[in-house]
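Protein chain data
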Amino acid sequence: MYFTQGLHRAVRQQPDTVAVCCGDERLTFAQFAQRVASLAGALRRLGIHGGERVAMLSLNSVRYLEYDMAVPWAGGVLNPVNIRWSPAEMLYALDDSGTHVLIVDDNFKDVASRLAKEGRTVRHVIYAGAGKAPAGMLDYEALIAANEPVEDAWRHGEDLAGIFYTGGTTGYPKGVMLSHYNLGISGMASLVTGRCAPGTVYLHAMPMFHLGSFSSVNALFMNGGVHVVLPSFTPQGVLEAISRYGVNELMLAPTMIQLLLDWMDANASLSGTLDLSSLRMIGYGASPISQALLRRAQATFRNAKFVQGYGMTELSPAGTFLGDEYHTDAAFASGKMRAAGKPYVCVEIKIVDDDGQELPRGEVGEIVARGGNVMRGYWNKPEATAEAIRNGWLHTGDSGYMDEEGLVYVVDRLKDMIVTGAENVYSAEVENALASHPAVAACAVIGIPNQKWGESVHAVVVLRAGASVAEAALMAHCRERIAGYKCPRSFEFRDTLPLSSVGKVLKTELRKPYWDGQGRNVA
């Protein structure tokens, strides 16, 4: 398997079909591949041919898709840069990976100049913006025009395809090494679920540096679908793109789904003019979704199936898949809607204890995975690799259980477990209880220091617009749904929660005020 395989197939089978749309820009598969091959030729002239790294620091664009294909075509290794990082974090990833070429758009040309000046390994910066290339940078379009198309280098199998850095929320980021085989297996697994079916018009609204979005690129090329690209997520932009291009499928974080619905409610006259009937599948992930939000979304997008996936960068990123058949009233009643899904066809999953022994069904332990989608390891971090992959099994760092049907339930991040009075409390369970209250728009539960109990359960709550609720009412609501020792002992009300670029709540930021000076972050 090789990452550019799907593009080659599409060019041979449907060269004149539209491959990419962004605003008024459209390219057929033949036109797109021609540009990719010429950009690959330019990269080779810059020294990219035998696994050298090429980074991209940009909002979503057609050029981002070209980068995704041209780097492996040239023989290089992808290194997408998280646009939400600080310059220091960006610089670390570039230096750590030994990146030689950095491609940037207008939004990041200034920081790119700093990165090139302060970094140890970046030799060339390519400007992929709309204007004239700044001094010291190469012009993206000029490089394509000046270079003839080249043959695909055909790096494949276990050859390294990309280094994808995990979020820098704690310590330095780790570069996850994924091979062409890893990405190919993961893409095929997505197709088996029914995602990115032939003829799909897919909207890239999630940031393209993130593997959740990147995996859709791979799967969609495999089936010759149409890529519709938004520079970044906005509720209006997403809804207008669905209407304009007849989008069939997209992936969103639950926070994004809520923003869409809230915008539609606040702009009913405009949203009512948009044709959203083409939308047939909405995938959600990155964080759990409340039952109330899901039902609201189902009522709004009546033609769409809802599916969710659980995974991580280290799994390329496929782990489990929960199909539309589990998004029903019966699934809500049975509790199966809370599952993360069944393992993808490419992966085995089991639940183990601290000694790595598989636990009986229903018992909570660590989720571990094995399969062709498991990363090669962490770049330049053999000890971290050895800790994560043991006897062929990737230890996810997530706790969960598996039921008799084979459904995997994610209980929490192991590090998010709260120990209060020698009792273990999993924050996700508390959050699910809180989120079912009609006044709660979003919430996060953390452990904070408690002199008597070691830690106590603390809830950070965002209320719906115009809503109000007393702490006592929230406590009573929780007590109806979970054991008393799991209920929050304190509440904090905020306008927003701190979120990562893909909509995950940054609990480290919520913990900081309580644990600073403690010497550690748990009791």
Remarks:
- The mean pLDDT is 91.
- The longest strand covers residues 440-450.
- The chain has 17 helices and 27 strands.
- Residues 5-179 form a domain with the Rossmann fold fold (CATH 3.40.50.12780).
